[in-house]
Amino acid sequence: MTQATVGKWLDIGPVVQIGPGSARTLPVEGGEEIAVFHTMRGKFYALVNKCPHRQGPLSQGIIHGDTVSCPLHNWRISLQSGEAQGEDEGCTPTIPLKLDAGRIFLLREAVVPQFMPSQPSSAAQSA
Ligand code: FES
Fold first, then answer.
1. Measuring CA to CA, which residue among 110, 54, 25, 88 is closest to residue 67?
2. Nearest-atom index, ligand 1, CA of 51
């Protein structure tokens, strides 16, 4: 793996830390908590840990195939697209994820909040 690749992807730990059919959460300082899912078929997905209905914690839902049932009102959310299934409407943001050498990587720019200047620019101050 090149240094650029290392910088682009965030290593969040070994795949064995998340058993099949379960999920773990990843708190993000200044950003949205992320849920990482491991399906019974061995696939891994990462989504913002909020249901598109009323922000239920998707990480606490039950995984069926490549969907998760929200623990609050049972909406089914696609782990691949983040979209609500059936007649429900809404979408949870997904986070690009890859596996390499037994470890889980998330796309850094999708996890870490973009830099927001805390001070107004000098041009804005003089206006
Ligand atoms: S909050 Fe998820 S179904 Fe209502």
1. 88
2. 2
CATH number of 6-112: 2.102.10.10
CB of 53 shorter than 6 A to ligand 1: yes
Which atom of ligand 1 is found nearest the CA of 54? 1
Upper half-sphere CA count for residue 64 (Cβ side, 13 Å) = 8
Domain boundaries, the chain: 6-112
Q: Is 51 in the pocket of ligand 1 (CB under 6 A)?
A: yes
- The pTM assigned to this predicted structure is 0.85
Q: What is the pLDDT of residues 5-64, one digit of tens each?
A: 558 999 999 999 999 999 999 999 888 999 999 999 999 999 999 999 999 999 999 999
For residue 66, count CB atoms less than 10 angstroms from its CB and return exposed for 0-12, middle for 13-18, buried for 19 or more: middle
